[in-house]
Amino acid sequence: MVAYELNTVGRRTFLAGAAATGVLALSACDSLPALSLTEAIRRLLTRASRAAFARLTAPGGFYDSELSRLDLPDVFGSRGGVLQNILTSAVFKTRLQREFNHIAERGARRAAPLVADAVRMIGIDNARDLIRGGPTAATGFLRQSMGVSLIEAMVPELGEGMRLASDPIVGQAIAALTGVDVGTVARSLSSRADEAIWGEIGRQEADIRAHPEATNDPVLIGALKAL
């Protein structure tokens, strides 16, 4: 009888302790000052964007990744004549796609400092909500705040990349686009690159959220572990 009562008391003590721990976990994020949470979001976005651009600006950064590989710009979709002859060949189509993905690396290098500046300057009033948000909440917030600025910045860079492309197939393909100039192709490619960049930043953010201890950053670990 005594043993039963002791076991019962032990279970109650354990459950009470577990409940208290749960309350502390739920309220830990609320106890952190807003300034710390804002800094945590900035550090999260800084790490995620740096890792993303390091991957995308490396040789083969776009093409070698199934998640980041860019399709040919839309303007190549339904054209005839010389261009159609080029694209009916799988070898030439792959070659052209690979070259455009290589050109996209120039765009990513142009976009990287813009994202870094935006992270440093951005005002974050809802840091607590972003910390508690989904795997890519901070990336989504930053992307919305920047709008189409990356696309606009990459267009001239990608246009220059096309004009200087080492593979003559790029010039041949663009020349075959009747009524379409390099700027139009560059904008189409820039839009695709923009999607790939934000997608990669989001994946990096999700990975940091899943493994904050890997950052060795006490501010990040404290904020993310307090959820």
Describe what this molecule looks like in 3D.
The structure is a single chain. By secondary structure, the protein is mainly alpha-helical. It folds into two domains: 1-31; 33-225, no CATH class. Helices cover 74% and strands 0% of the residues. It contains ten helices and no strands. The protein has helices at 2-31, 34-56, 81-87, 90-121, 127-132, 137-146, 149-163, 168-175, 182-210, 218-225. The relative contact order is 0.17. Residues 1-28 have low confidence and may be disordered.
Question: What attributes characterize this protein structure?
Answer:
mainly alpha; single chain; 2 domains; 74% helix; 227 residues; elongated
Outline of this structure?
With 227 residues, the chain is mainly alpha-helical. The protein contains 10 helices and no strands.
Q: Strand count, sense and closure of the main sheet?
A: none
Structural class based on helices, strands and sheet pairing? mainly alpha
Content of β-strand:
under 5%
Give start-end ranges of low-pLDDT stretches: 1-28
Radius of gyration from the alpha-carbon trace, in angstroms: 25 Å
Using DSSP, what is the number of strands? 0
Mean pLDDT: 84
> Total domains, how many?
2
What does the overall shape look like? Answer: elongated
Q: What order do the SSEs take from the amino end to the carboxyl end, as H and E?
A: HHHHHHHHHH
Helicity, in percent? over 70%
Count of helical regions: 10
Distance between the termini: 42 Å
Tell me the layout of helices and strands.
Blueprint: H1 2-31, H2 34-56, H3 81-87, H4 90-121, H5 127-132, H6 137-146, H7 149-163, H8 168-175, H9 182-210, H10 218-225
Helix pairs in contact: 2-4, 2-9, 2-10, 4-7, 4-9, 6-9, 7-9
